[in-house]
């Protein structure tokens, strides 16, 4: 399913401005100050440089080199977003940049230029207010990592991936690369070869972490690729919410972000993974995210994609145990020159499993949004349920939206439903609201926020307020 709108001259110019969410909060950078720089381009020598700097165990170095071969052998994806992907020149990217410092445990010990960056983005304030732990990554490595004592006393581990694989290998290694194999796709292979940074979290049996853990990923350097690797393991009956935010300054050259996120929810465990991405529009955001839910477990992805030039992100859940649940709630906004290619993958692998996908997209100007989903229910299973909803809002005549649902259900003992809709903010709607005393900007803000409101409520309070504020602020004074 795809759709564009017929011209609507009364709204085109005004609404292109009105819904242009302000990304300037992250559009700044400081001079580079790197002790370690792997240089430009990717080869086995690059891998050796990264492994030497990070003092990788032999098994990690071998893992990286095998992944490099897979990356070089795999072709670029050709079935979608081909034109955009052709603009990535892997030979011009810098794959590792680091100041050489270990993650600070106290905010006072963070290097000054990094501290200024994260203070401008509000990290210390957020931590003081409501977070149980924070990790802040600057280019390739974590600059700051801290967890509240009350949480660590419960046995919760929250460190960067380098510390995880070295200091907690007995927990880390059995699941590393198992949820998302190296050869899953070309970009998971790239991440496996050059990964650095990211989070490792382990929550012991029965522990329910009351406040969120948060990571913040910041790109500061030009011609750079950020390749964090996150692994979260939540043991039986335990619960955690993890939130991540992402920003980068706007450069004239392309920037690459290619993360891998693996979630493991053991029997009866619950994981909520919240992302608010606000990349600048020169970033190629090519991410692989997947969780495994064992018996009676739940994995829930809550996802907001605002920035980037191209995003390709399809969070997935493999429901491996009986009565496991998987859910993806997503909002995407594509503006001029942007393509948000997002969706979900739900793989039912046990009886009585349930999946839910709700996706809403907004296309502005020449922006393009795409929903791409996969639901798979095999014949031998019984009592599986899936609900998929894809709603799109087109703002003007140049916007585009596409929906590609692939729902495969075998057997006759399952329940599935799919709904998709495309709507337009019409001149009549805006005119009607203006007659009720609203300005044109307020009318547009009300329409857009009303469209996404039910999903915004799924986000933690601090994030939902921020998402609404960004839309409202951009409406003010931008119409007419």
Q: Summary?
A:
The chain is an alpha/beta fold and 480 residues long.
Helix content: 25-40%
What's the number of structural domains?
A: 1
Largest sheet: 13 strands, mixed
Structural class: alpha/beta
Strand runs, count: 25
* Termini separation: 33 Å
Our count of helices gives 13
Uncertain regions spanning at least 5 consecutive residues:
4-24, 26-32, 473-480
Q: What overall form do the CA principal axes indicate?
A: globular
- Give the mean pLDDT: 81
Please give the oligomerization state of what you see: single chain
**β content, as a range?**
25-35%
Query: Radius of gyration from the CA trace?
Result: 22 Å
Can you walk through the features of this model?
With 480 residues, this protein is an alpha/beta fold. The chain has one domain. Helix content is 26%, strand content 35%. The protein is built from 13 helices and 25 strands. Strands 1, 6, 7, 9, 10, 12, 13, 15, 17, 18, 20, 22 and 24 form a 13-stranded mixed beta sheet that branches. A 10-stranded mixed beta sheet has the order 5-4-8-11-14-16-19-21-23-25. Helix 3 packs antiparallel against helix 10, helix 8 packs across helix 9 (169-175) and helix 11 packs across helix 12. The longest helix is centred in the C-terminal third of the chain and has 17 residues, at 440-456. Residues 4-24, 26-32 and 473-480 have low confidence and may be disordered.
């Amino acid at each position: 399913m795809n759709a564009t709108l017929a011209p609507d001259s009364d709204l085109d110019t005004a609404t292109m401005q009105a819904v242009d969410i302000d990304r300037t909060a992250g559009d700044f950078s400081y001079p580079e100050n790197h002790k370690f720089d792997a240089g430009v381009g990717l080869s086995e020598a690059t891998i050796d440089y990264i492994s030497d700097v990070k003092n990788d165990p032999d098994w990690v170095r071998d893992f990286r080199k095998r992944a490099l071969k897979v990356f070089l052998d795999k072709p670029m994806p050709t079935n979608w977003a081909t034109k955009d992907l052709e603009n990535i020149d892997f030979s011009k990217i810098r794959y590792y940049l680091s100041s050489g410092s270990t993650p600070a445990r106290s905010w006072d010990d963070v290097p000054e230029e990094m501290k200024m960056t994260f203070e401008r983005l509000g990290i210390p304030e957020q931590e003081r207010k409501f977070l149980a732990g924070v990790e802040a990554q600057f280019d390739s490595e974590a600059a700051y990592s801290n967890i509240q004592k009350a949480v660590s006393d419960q046995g919760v581990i929250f460190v960067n991936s380098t510390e995880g694989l070295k200091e907690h290998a007995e927990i880390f290694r059995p699941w590393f690369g198992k949820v998302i194999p190296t050869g899953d796709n070309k970009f998971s292979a790239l991440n496996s070869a050059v990964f650095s940074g990211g989070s490792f979290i382990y929550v012991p049996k029965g522990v329910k972490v009351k406040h969120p853990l948060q990571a913040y990923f910041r790109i500061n350097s030009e011609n750079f690729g950020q390749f964090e690797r996150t692994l979260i393991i939540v043991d039986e009956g335990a619960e955690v919410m993890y939130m991540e935010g992402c920003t980068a300054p706007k450069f004239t050259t392309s920037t690459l972000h290619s993360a891998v996120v693996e979630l493991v929810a053991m029997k009866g465990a619950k994981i909520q993974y919240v992302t608010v991405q606000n990349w600048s529009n020169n970033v190629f955001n090519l991410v692989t995210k997947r969780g495994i839910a064992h018996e009676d477990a739940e994995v829930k992805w809550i996802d907001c994609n605002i920035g980037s030039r191209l995003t390709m992100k399809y969070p997935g859940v493999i429901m491996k145990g009986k009565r496991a649940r998987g859910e993806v709630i997503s909002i995407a906004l594509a503006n001029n020159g942007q393509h948000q290619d997002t969706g979900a993958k739900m793989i039912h692998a046990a009886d009585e499993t349930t999946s839910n996908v709700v996706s809403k997209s907004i296309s502005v100007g020449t922006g393009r949004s795409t929903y791409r989903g996969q639901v798979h229910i095999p014949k031998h299973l019984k009592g599986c349920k899936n609900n998929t909803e894809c709603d799109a809002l087109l703002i003007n005549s140049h916007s585009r939206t596409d929906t590609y649902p692939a729902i495969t259900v075998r057997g006759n003992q399952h329940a599935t439903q799919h709904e998709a809709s495309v709507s337009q903010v019409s001149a009549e709607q805006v005119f009607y609201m203006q007659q009720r005393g609203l300005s044109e900007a307020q009318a547009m803000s009300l329409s857009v926020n009303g469209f996404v409101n039910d999903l915004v409520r799924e986000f933690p309070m601090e994030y939902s307020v921020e998402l609404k504020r960004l839309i409202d602020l951009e409406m003010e004074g931008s119409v007419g």
